[in-house]
Write a structure and sequence with these properties.
Helix content: 25-40%
Order of helices and strands: HEHEHEHEHEHEHEHEHH
Bound molecules: pyridoxal-5'-phosphate
Number of helices: 10
Largest sheet: 6 strands, parallel
Radius of gyration: 17 Å
Distance between the termini: 11 Å
Shape: globular
């Protein structure tokens, strides 16, 4: 399936979100995002601490991560394993950093994630779970994982179909280095907020159903949903983690296909 990325709302930077050239601009972008989160929480009757902001630094240089770290950010999301691993290496001197890999993983890259990441949000197969677990066991590490769900039904999206989760989750118990924390999704690429909202509602409902029979010790507290373009809707629908790139770090030069390898463009 070919998606016309021109109609994709999310990567379009909002007014006032230019690429931050310095710390003051970055701080300003961050304040705008923080205000949106606060407003969305207030409107939903939720507390601000129920929502984690995961800044997504993909395509931005390690120096941008340094600037953000000076402003107090310690968690960063990357969707490509190689890029995550490289920035992890380049920022070894910064205390307290946590890297979250949020994009599709191929088994042969599992070692990179096992080594550098604290969290992996795009688990979608037992083969990848097995590869990650094996690497983690060798390194004596463990990893928080979220299972990616394809809530839009688009062929181009990674993630398991919602109906596969009940079978999939119990099988993860054998991988003792993986701590299953919850679910993640990317909403449909659409200007139609109600279609976006439906994706988030699907994830929330699915999580509530799965939690009733969740394997022992498997917390499904996390609902990672919402990005620069739709974080407000996601928070209204119960998001516990919003993954925000462009609204903080400015527009990306790369086309969507560059960082979402599954998305085809014409
Ligand atoms: C890039 C990316 C984001 C952030 O998107 P923005 O539009 O830059 O906020 C969120 N989630 C995933 C999986 C991504 O790849």
């Amino acid at each position: 399936m070919v998606i016309n990325m021109a109609s994709h709302t999310t990567p379009t930077p909002r007014e006032g979100h230019s690429a931050p050239a310095n710390s003051a601009e970055l701080a300003q972008n961050l304040a705008l995002v923080e205000q949106r989160i606060l407003t969305a929480c207030a409107q939903a009757g939720r507390s601000r601490d129920e929502v984690r902001l995961l800044p997504v630094s993909k395509t931005k240089p390690a120096n941008t991560v340094r600037l953000a770290h000076e402003l107090g950010l310690t968690e960063f999301g990357e969707n490509r394993p190689q890029e995550a691993h490289q920035k992890w290496q380049e920022t070894q001197d910064l205390p307290g950093l946590r890297w979250s890999v949020i994009g599709h993983l191929q088994r042969n890259k599992a070692g990179l994630v096992a080594e550098c990441a604290s969290e992996f949000q795009a688990l979608d197969s037992l083969r990848v779970a097995e590869a990650l677990d094996r690497r983690l066991q060798t390194l004596g590490r463990s990893l928080d994982v979220l299972v990616q769900v394809n809530t839009s039904g688009e062929d181009s999206k990674f993630g398991l179909p919602p109906q596969d989760l009940a079978q999939f989750l119990p099988q993860l118990s054998q991988f003792t280095a993986l701590r299953v924390r919850g679910l993640m999704t990317l909403a449909i690429f659409s200007h139609d907020h109600e279609r976006v909202r439906t994706c988030f509602q699907t994830l929330h409902t699915l999580r509530d159903q799965l939690r009733q029979n969740a394997p022992q010790g498997m917390s499904l507290d996390e609902l990672s949903m919402g990005m620069s373009g739709d974080l407000d809707v996601a928070i209204a629908e119960g998001s516990t983690t919003v993954r925000v790139g462009q609204a903080i770090f400015g527009a990306r030069q790369q086309t969507a296909g560059h960082y979402w390898p599954g998305v085809k463009e014409d």
